[in-house]
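The data are set out underneath:

___
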Amino acid sequence: MIVSIGVDPVAFSILGFEVRWYGLLAVVAVAVALAIVRAGMRRDGITDGLLENGAIVVGVAALVGGRILFLLQNDPAMFFTDPLHALAVWHGGLSFYGGLALGVVALWAYARYSRIGFAHAADLAAPAIAAGQAIGHLGCLVGGDSYGLPANGPLAVVYANPGAMAPQGIPLHPTQLYEAASLGLLAVILWVSRDRLGRRGQGAVAATYLVGNAAIRFVLFFLRDDVVVLGGLKVAQLIAIGIALVGAAWLVALWRPAHRPTAQEVHP
């Protein structure tokens, strides 16, 4: 089944300022993510005041990091030729890994400042991030960002609007939809399993997210038109391997049984 997407990526204009579906869905993604974090914080007895401040700090850092890495990879000259457009995140063009890296740094700093604890804060954020990513990828689907390779299978999308970022008239893998569905499922799994994972220690939910997210991106990037750099793999896949190893090591550290003193240690 081939689905034609002829939607204009620009939802509407206000005083000459274009508001794109990507930006609108990003706002929805942030709202849903905040609601999930708020539910987790209230469950843990953390005041809402910490949420608003933390959301601003981490959200801005993630947007800045995502935009910077995207431009460094695709159009670094824009920083000098059109610096205002370089900041136009609502036009699309965000690198997930750039946003994750700077967002984690901001979360660590804010958790340290607010004395929540980084692992606890990361556990609260993990299901929210997965849900927000899922919604954000629907915006990518509408605008043609992050499009897949040409498809010969039963499911494909064809972009018919010249404003889309994807090539016109060519059946493509709807990788944005694949990723949205996979991340939505991951968000549900993390949310319903948070108590069970939490019994292993703080950080288990976040570590599971890192492994799950990395696995999703590793598989789906085989269907993305990115440059192969090493061993048949793309840059995003190599980064995904590194992130999966970090998450797996974190889980192993939490799953490792506590040290029990030997008889010699008890009776030296």
